[in-house]
Specification:
It contains 1 helix and 19 strands. The chain has one helix at 5-14, and strands spanning 41-56, 61-65, 70-74, 80-96, 101-118, 121-142, 150-167, 173-182, 185-196, 199-210, 213-215, 218-221, 225-235, 240-251, 254-256, 259-262, 265-279, 282-292, 297-308.
């Protein structure tokens, strides 16, 4: 038998359910141990680096995954070659309200450095800003038994800083403006796992719905995103765990005043990871993923620290 504690801490940190209850390696880990204990706090801190390459004549936004949601990084309009580095910092604070219900507060910010070539012109651009802060809840629906476990959750960005395109009378983009919006998107997610010692099979699904926003009399509708990820986790030893899997992602059209500016697109990418239990209640995880679509290529490395108090 192996110690499942570090394995499931890594699993949770990669989704919403990151910091777990200590579990003896000789006893099965139950789904109720995925949530914070009643009246207990857990904290996740994540720093993710993404490199985005794009060769396109279309304007677009690129979703970058955080611990709980997606943030939208705007690319630029026109015939272009784009190379963009993005660093996203995320903080999740979780509290066990009951043995089956966990509340979450979260916040994200980013730094981007972009190199854009438009014909013979080359431009460098940089941006650092807050992205969004929100609240959520995770519910235990079913324990693991003969059939797999099930947890579901919902969250909303209470406040988010969105980037809108400023346009001339002909509709051409001439600049961008940032505005704070409330309840600008909602996330729905589910997680299920089944253990066949020493392997754990995991299925994760997430859907982010973005509210249509008004800006200077115009309407802007960002893409909705569906992400589905089957994964396998394996314990190398009681302190080190490996994971690998694939992620299917689908995003809807990006619209401006009802007109499609970016078509809907889907992609399949890989994800691999490793976690290490430094000491009791302290887990460090590192995972990597890629995403290739019709308009851009994205590679991401995510470092996560999980702490249970």
């Amino acid at each position: 038998m192996f110690n499942k504690k570090a394995l499931f801490r890594f699993l949770g940190a990669a989704t919403l359910l990151s910091t777990l209850l200590h579990a003896d390696g000789q006893t099965p880990l139950k789904v109720e141990e995925l949530l914070s204990k009643k009246n207990a706090f857990n904290v996740d801190v994540s720093v993710a680096y993404s490199n985005i390459d794009q060769k396109t004549a279309m304007s677009t936004v690129v979703p970058v995954s955080t611990l709980l949601s997606f943030i939208y990084i705007p690319a630029y309009a026109g015939e272009q070659v784009l190379d963009q580095d993005v660093v996203v910092a995320s903080l999740n604070l979780k509290y066990g309200l009951t043995d089956w219900l966990e509340l979450v507060m979260y916040a994200n910010g980013h730094n981007t450095s972009s190199r854009v070539q438009l014909g013979d012109a080359i431009a460098n651009q940089a941006d650092t800003d807050f992205d969004h802060a929100g609240i959520g809840a995770t519910f235990r629906v079913k324990d693991e038994g003969v059939y797999p476990s099930l947890l579901v959750g919902v969250s909303t960005n209470v406040i988010g800083r969105l980037t809108f395109a400023d346009r001339d009378v002909d509709g051409n983009v001439i600049g961008t403006t940032k505005q704070d919006k409330t309840f600008e998107s909602f996330n729905f997610y589910a997680l299920s796992y089944y253990t066949v010692d020493p392997v754990v099979f995991v299925f994760k699904a997430q859907y982010q719905w973005s509210v249509e926003e008004d800006y200077k009399g115009d309407t802007s509708d960002r893409p909705d995103i569906l992400a589905i990820s089957p994964q396998v986790y394996f314990a190398v030893n009681p302190y080190t765990n490996l994971s690998w899997g694939v992620t299917y992602r689908y995003q809807t059209e990006q619209r401006f005043n009802g007109k499609v500016e970016t078509i809907a697109e889907s992609s399949i990418g890989y994800n691999i990871g490793v976690s290490y239990e430094v000491s009791r209640g302290n887990i460090i995880s590192l995972d990597a993923s890629n995403n290739e679509t019709a308009t851009y290529s994205q590679n991401t490395i995510n470092l996560i620290y999980s702490k249970r108090f």
